[in-house]
Amino acid sequence: MFQGFRNDGHKKNEIHVAAMGLKLEGYPGSGTFAHGVHPPDHKKLSKDAAIRVMPTPEMVVLALHQNIGGPCDPMVKPRQTVQWGELIGKGSTFVSTTLHASVPGIVQRPVRVTLANGRHMDTLPIKTEGELPSGQDLWDEIFGGDWPTTGLNAYEPTQISRDINDAGLVGLGGAAFPTHVKITPGDKKPIHTLIVNGCECEPYLTSDYRLMVEAPVSIITGALLAGRSVGAERIVIGVEDNKMPAVAALKKATDGTGIQIAVVKTKYPQGSEKHLIQAVIKRQVPLGGLPSDVGVAISNVGTMAAVARAVIHKKPLTHRVISVTGGGIVNPSNVLAPIGVSFGALIDFCGGLTPGAARMVAGGPMMGFAFANPNTPVTKGTGGLTVMTRDEVNAGEETACVRCGKCVDVCPMNLVPTKIAMASRHQDIALSRRYNIMACFECGSCAYTCPAHIPLVQLIRVGKALVAAGGI
Amino acid sequence: MKPIDETRPTAPVIHVSPSPHLAQSTTSTRRMMVDVLVALVPVVAMSLFVFRGYALLQLAVCLSGSLAAELLFVKMRGRQSTLKDCSAIVTGIILAMSLPGTAPWYVGVIAAFVAVGIGKIIFGGLGMNLFNPAMVGRAFVMISFAGALAASGFEDVRSAVDAVSQATPMNAYKMNGVVTPLVHLFWGTTNGSLGETSALACLLGGLYLIIRRAASWEIPAGLLLAVLVIGGMADLAGPADGWTVLHHILGGSLLFGAFFIATDPVTSPLTPKGKFIFGLGTGTLIMVLRLFSGYPEGVMFAVLLMNALTPLINRWTIPTPFGGQ
């Protein structure tokens, strides 16, 4: 249960951020991690664009499997009328979650679509019919109003977790791990720290940043509830030091709550949960382990805002903030849009494509998925749509590896990417495992840096599939 | 969404590809090679200044030999020309800088063909070779044309160029116990292989390589550390004949080897730790050869021997992953 902060020990290592007069007291981390890269962040395209509410689209397509873990079982039939927020799918296993109608309307015949990540998925399309608040009303409905930061002891830890599952929450940072699995009272692995991830280290993306600036109090309320559910002794929000307006907004909102803000160094992939834990509490999550193995629960800022809404207002996850940005978008924006809307509708809402647009990416450019069909629907984990021009993509011609070791110098997991990639290319499973292929989380730092422009990440993905097929 | 009309040149054409979708624009293999060429400028300039026409001729012979060999061998493999990656130019210049200016033209040509053809292309081209190509070429001619690269090959007492009329500092010491003043070794006004004489030029070029990260600092650091320690011990244990550890560092091809030859990325280990071990091993072998073998110099053999150990060093230095035991 949440009881404030221990300030004993670890006093020697403080993170000083002189500009803001902030200190991260009581935490041993250095505010960063070893290796990593500094890609150009391109965030200025959309970082000052206040979140705009998208008008209700004519149609949404809700995939039945939007999270890591099991899919949903559909709860509605074609031609059935559903209300906004009505339950339409139920998790098939524990590591799965519920699904709700993001618009009021009539359920259409299920169709199979290809999601941006390449998976073919059964979906429930809903044709909009009926009223959904629009504009400022929808914003107020979702993020507005008073968010309590005191008296949260009235909410029972197990009930918080149940409410999160009932609201269909998944990690909104991109991985879409069911939130109720993380935010739940644990007996076996006690959680001492809840880290709220506001790093948003992917270039271009600004949706989390805008949310921190525009709706900080809902994030704080959600964090307090989540912290109470997992029984954390302390709550820290990790934000990269290129987002100082967000830090200022959060600072104001956290006043008197005991929540601390860890201003960490801007470096890709700082938003990786393992690396944020290292930056803040200097513990390494064991290989193949989870944050709970080091007593940490970690979740994204957007997820926390959704937790607040799920627990206090008992409202499901139906909308999310999406950055629609890149040189290929006429008006780069941050958009509050219903889940299931097509990427094409988002592009139209933001003024369309520029003539130079060359690649559409669901997510950010480092880990996002390129796709070609504009009818592809948005899922719960979609934090952004980055449309890049040919110049921005800057694909170089592949040449031979000269074993310069630059990939080794940047790998945040301390691997030897070129060796693993070559082992994969030659289908040498034993060699790729000797070089710890499964530790790679495909952040893309190696391929970004490689002077020979070798598709290292893609080769490693193929190798991982080979290892998985070979049975570990 | 508006339909995309591909017949109009202004319409966007969308293509897909695996992530990441960003690439660092400033790096390429070619750029790394160009960095090495820039770093070689002081060395080449100094060799032209000291050896005049000898250096010019040797450079021309080795460069044209390397480029011709690259063209010929790549064509024989039925591959596309790889001249534009500039690696053949680097090999040619480093080879020329490692030969005596007085070596006959055919020695340079044969060395270049062996370096590029047998040292690199038959292994599969750039990135696939096990041994430093320039050193393979040099080792071949050193054994085949022993006279041209032995002590007598460097000296021509009747030469109009001052440096060439003297013995090389390493030979003068090994054979006659004559110690060349450090100042001469530093500026490079002595006899020797074209690029090795000036410690200053090697240091300048080497620093550029390291600042541009075209070469890793771990290899020269390990190499110099090993030479300092072993040379220092030899100073304490050996006769006080005036040849100190500083002469070991500034004399011969030690600095040229440390910065330009041992740092060849293809033939050195991948990890920082491995690179440091590689440097230590090379430095140790150089000192063993210099102190105990019949040769006055040992850089070339030391590098080739350590190249052979590189796969093993890579295997020994697999880093522990983040979160691993």
From TrEMBL, chain A:
Q: Where in the cell is it found?
A: Cell membrane
Task: Give the principal location in a single coarse category.
Answer: membrane
Gene Ontology terms: cellular component: plasma membrane
Under InterPro entries, the record lists:
4Fe4S_Fe-S-bd, 4Fe4S_Fe_S_CS, Ion_transpt_RnfC/RsxC, Nuo51_FMN-bd, Nuo51_FMN-bd_sf, RnfC_N, Soluble_ligand-bd
4Fe-4S ferredoxin-type domain location: 389-421
Q: Its Enzyme Commission number?
A: 7.-.-.-
Top-rank EC class of the record's enzyme: translocase
User: Can you say what this protein is called?
Assistant: Ion-translocating oxidoreductase complex subunit C
Q: Which organism is it from?
A: Desulfosarcina ovata subsp. ovata
Quote the gene name from the UniProt entry.
rnfC
